[in-house]
Amino acid sequence: MRAKQIVIVVASLVALWLSLVIVKADPAEAVKTLFMGAFGSPSAISGTLRETTPLLFLGAAVYIALKAGLFNIGAEGQYTVGACFGAITMLNVPGPAGVVAGVLVGAITGALWACPAGLIKAYRNGHEVISSIMLNSIAYFLTKALVAGPFKGQGQLTPSTSPLPVQSKLTPLANIGGVEIPQSFILGILVIVGVSFWLSRTTSGYELKAAGANARAAEFAGVKTKQVTVKAMALSGGLAGVAGALQVAQFESRFYDGFSVGYGFDALGVALLTGGSPLTLLFSASFFGALNKGGTALAILGINKGITSVILAVVIIIFAVFRYAKKGEQHD
Amino acid sequence: MIDFLFQVLTLSAPLLLVAMAGYWSERCGVINIGLEGKMLTACFVCAFASAKFGAVGGIMIAIVAATLISLLHYALTQVYRVDHIISGMAVNLLAAGATGFLEAAGFAKESLPDTARVPLWIYYALAVISPLAIHWVSQKTRFGLRHRSVGSDPDKARLVGVNPQVVRFAGLVMTGVFAGLAGSLLVTETSTFTKDMTSGRGYIALAALILGGWRPIHASLACLLFGFASAIQIKFSGTPLFGIDIPSEAWKALPYIVTLLALAGLLGRQRTPAGLGKH
Questions:
Q1: Cα distance from A320 to chain B (closest Cα, Å)?
Q2: Using CA atoms, how far apart are residues B50 and B191, in angstroms rounded to an integer?
Q3: Which of A56, A50, A55, A86 is nearest to A255 (CA)?
Q4: What pLDDT digit, counting tens, does each position of B240-259 carry?
Q5: Across-strand partners of A175?
Q6: φ and ψ at A266, to 5 degrees?
Q7: CB contact under 8 A, B80 and A129
Q8: Do A126 and B90 touch (CB under 8 A)?
């Protein structure tokens, strides 16, 4: 660890401490509340699992894009679109078949929503971050218009679909000592294992990593990097769409205006904080999930949830200084 | 008609100023996704400081705050060599979190009285003059030429004795100044700070910069296009067009759709500075 890295770690921690002092909160008390809010009781742990679940899928989604050298900030919009169309499908196809159909529709719509960003990046050299942020806003307005207009549930006062019938909802898989384990949580773990296997053991996964690591070299080796870019974006969007549809089936049981609370952005942090293997997504997603759940408990101390964004930013900065510093010849 | 044109200008002005902030950063090679965060910081600080130190003091402090955030981006990307996008996202996250959290804690809550606000026409005049002034600086002055040369090829700039780090430091200070102005303008218009009040303008400004080929005057024309899209939205929202009812959300999405189409290259060719993101 070099001196300048120590400087940024110390500076970040001082900044965090200062921000707590500004709002007259006791930092030790805040850390304790945060921890107990996330892990202090069976219901707190259930809440943490609930917050972690979408981040497993979204983290994997953003991770795939990241491995292809793309920043999929658009996960937020793909998640929203997947949730909206997934919910509409589940309302129209009854029973478990509806859940399966809804998840498929979520995957397809999410993938389609990611495509423009992939295409613009590959063939127009327009940065995917900006195009996908635009797509996020368009997704927000599109889904709002849908559930405020043609798909508004009967008797709903705010823009929202009707609630799903009971038989179309996913029930918790198990209840261990009061801790509810959602089915989609297990699915999320399987997806991460699958992504890990795909990236390390298949040709297409290898091509994706090659294109992300060095596009020119990959091109010379015969990888069609432009196609890989579009495919990676679509796959990433598909996973984000699945996350949205499952969020409806497992937890929310309807789609409404303001459905996403920023999981898509958290997912970028989740993906950035992974170590060498995609399996570490499990830890980073749990970390973000716990922070999200614990952050709400901080309201008791009069600390706004915004502090968790500050914590995340600080964690990302510290992590990036160590891990994502560009290795290259030092000038000057 | 005059009213409509004036509305286009007022809607474009914050975009114009933040696009100029982007120019100073991106044209010397520092990718700046963090414009949004710098602008939001300036909004918050301007609302907070104007109430205490008056109109001019408020702007000055907002500019200093935005500059400090801009220099954080400089430190992360140039000193620590963190990926520019990651640093920019961290800056945005930091700004969004910190301003939301401080606002909830009761800072910058009260609405600003007229005496604590700089007259809006000054901002609008600045928004009109800045692109022209920056064009002149970038074409005719030593600093402007060095600034562009670093963005085009940092290695060649280094060979002729220009230190890219120094030029980028100056560039990012200018980014802070313009982002500070842009944020102050937003707060001056509404006279109060609200959470996430920049609502994506930093990103739209970046798109405008891309569309304008990283040239100040062209970028400002692109900003006017987005301002025009917003003005159209306000004018036509809620009224049926050719007998068809268009949901207000479709109008609200219009500026973003225009941006996306612009990025898709339907409206112009790209001239990315060759040294963008390089060290």
A1: 6
A2: 10
A3: A86
A4: 777 677 788 888 888 888 88
A5: A180
A6: -55, -35
A7: no
A8: no
Per-residue pLDDT tens over the stretch B120-132? 999 999 999 999 9
Instruction: Give phi and psi for A176, each to the nearest 5.
Output: -105, 105
Most A-contacting residue of B256, B258, B266 (CB-CB within 10 A), to test interface: B256
Q: Which amino acid is at B7?
A: Q
Query: Which residues in chain B are closer than 8 Å to A303, comparing Cβ atoms?
Result: 101, 105
Both tokens of B45, joined, read 């600080």
B253 vs A142: CB contact, 8 Å cut-off? yes
Reading the block at residue A186, the tokens are: 């297990």
**Nearest CA distance, A117 vs chain B (angstrom):** 9
| Chain centroid to CA B71 | 15
Q: What predicted TM-score, i.e. pTM, was given to this entire model?
A: 0.89
Q: Which of A4, A119, A127 sits opposite B79 (nearest CB)?
A: A4
**Residues B78 and B17 sit within 8 Å (Cβ to Cβ):** no
Q: Determine the angle formed by the axes of helices B35-74 and B164-190, rounding to 10 degrees.
A: 150
Q: Residues 6 or more apart from A24 whose CB is under 8 A from it?
A: none
Residue A160, beta-bridge partner list: A256
pLDDT digits (tens, 9 = 90+) for A14-54: 888 888 888 777 888 888 888 998 999 999 999 999 999 99
3-state secondary structure of B243: coil
- Tens-place pLDDT, residues A173-226: 888 888 888 999 999 999 999 999 999 999 999 999 998 888 889 989 888 999
